[in-house]
Specification:
Blueprint: H1 5-15, H2 19-33, H3 46-62, H4 67-83, H5 91-106, H6 112-138
Helix pairs in contact: 1-6, 2-3, 2-5, 4-6, 5-6
Bound molecules: protoporphyrin IX containing FE.
C-alpha cells in the first residue's frame, strides 16, 4: 500500500514540538480505554517508555521512503514485543489510542485525509511488527 508520505510528514512535524503531551495523552487514553493492558507496563518507567515510543515514530517517519530499513526495524521491534507479553489482539488497542492522541494533539489539523493517512500507516506498522512476532514463533 502506498502511504501518503507528504501528509504523514507534515502532520508529524506538527506533533513533534508536543511529543511529551502526545505520549502522555496516548498512554492515558490506552489505559482508560483498555485497562486490561496496564499490567503489561507494571514495571515500566513510563517517562522513558514515552520517549522510546516517540523515537520509534520518528524512525518510521524518517524512513517512509526506505521500506527495507523500516521493515527490518519494525520486524525486530515486533519480535521484542513477544518478551513484553504483547499479543496480536493488543495491536488494534494501541492503534485506536495512538489515533486518538494524534487527533487530540493536532486539533483542527486532524482532517479526514490526515486521519486516513495515519490509519493506513499504523496498519502497515502493526503488520510488520506482527510479522516479526510470528516469524520467531514459527522458527
Ligand atoms: C505501532 C506499534 C508499537 C510501537 C511503535 C511500539 C514501540 C515500542 C518501543 C520503541 C518500545 C521500547 C523497546 C525497547 O525497550 O527498546 C516498546 C516497549 C513496549 N511496548 Fe510497544 N510498541 C507498539 C505496540 C505495542 C503494543 C500493541 C503493546 C501492548 C499493549 C505494547 C506494549 C509494550 C510494552 C509492555 C513494552 C515494554 C515496556 C518496558 O520496557 O517495561 N507495544 N514499544
Amino acid at each position: 500500500m502506498a502511504l501518503n508520505v507528504e501528509l504523514l510528514e507534515t502532520s508529524f512535524a506538527q506533533v513533534k514540538p508536543n511529543s511529551l503531551e502526545f505520549t502522555e495523552r496516548f498512554y492515558a487514553t490506552l489505559f482508560a480505554d483498555y485497562p486490561q493492558v496496564q499490567p503489561l507496563f507494571a514495571k515500566t518507567n513510563m517517562e522513558a517508555q514515552g520517549k522510546k515510543l516517540f523515537q520509534s515514530l520518528v524512525l518510521v517517519i524518517n524512513n517512509l521512503l526506505q521500506p527495507d530499513v523500516l521493515s527490518s526495524a519494525l520486524k525486530g521491534l515486533g519480535t521484542q514485543h513477544i518478551q513484553y507479553g504483547v499479543l496480536p489482539h493488543h495491536y488494534p488497542m494501541v492503534g485506536s489510542s495512538l489515533l486518538k492522541a494524534f487527533g487530540a494533539t493536532l486539533g483542527p489539523a486532524w482532517t479526514p485525509d490526515v486521519q486516513q493517512a495515519w490509519t493506513e500507516a499504523y496498519g502497515a506498522v502493526a503488520q510488520l511488527m506482527l510479522e516479526g512476532e510470528t516469524t520467531l514463533q514459527n522458527s
